[in-house]
Amino acid sequence: MKKRTPVAEIMTKHVISLNKTDDLEQAEQLFKQHNIRHIPVVSGEAIIGMLSYTDLLRISFADAADEYALDVESVVYNMFTIEQVMAKNLVSVSSATTIKEVAELLATKEFHALPVVDNGKLVGIVTTTDLINYLINQF
Question: Residue 75 has what pLDDT?
């Protein structure tokens, strides 16, 4: 295992993102369609927040199966904007940050994904799943 391997080696480079003007129903569709749990929220090329699937679950019935729950979900989604639900105080890393540094951040903080930002532009996302897959590949 290389000690100075940059996070660029394991991050997701083709990031699914949301614009701050998108709605929460669209966010839920992206989570389910791409089987992901974190979506950066952007304004232009700059990241302004992070929305997690857990954030949606807190305000909705996103996994409920009956029709009534879907109606309630739509009403709840219309009550909030992405900007109101997303995490705003982000910690980000650069693509040159080492995997070890990223692992230390994720191990000590209460989040499971970090946006990767170079020169103010979102260039990737790294998650705890990326770290686990990296470790698996080492053995």
Answer: 65
Burial class (CB in 10 A: 0-12, 13-18, 19+), 27: buried
Q: How far is CA 135 from the centre of its chain?
A: 21
Show the low-confidence residues of the chain (pLDDT under 50): 62, 65-72
Tell me what pLDDT residue 138 has.
Answer: 85
Nearest C-alpha neighbor of 111 from the set 60, 59, 38? 38
Give the Cβ contact number of residue 117 at 10 Å.
20
Question: For 27, how many CA atoms within 13 A lie in the half-sphere containing its CB?
Answer: 33
Give the C-alpha distances (Å, rounded to integers) separating 101 from 38, 65, 112.
Answer: 20, 41, 14
Quick one: pLDDT at residue 68?
45
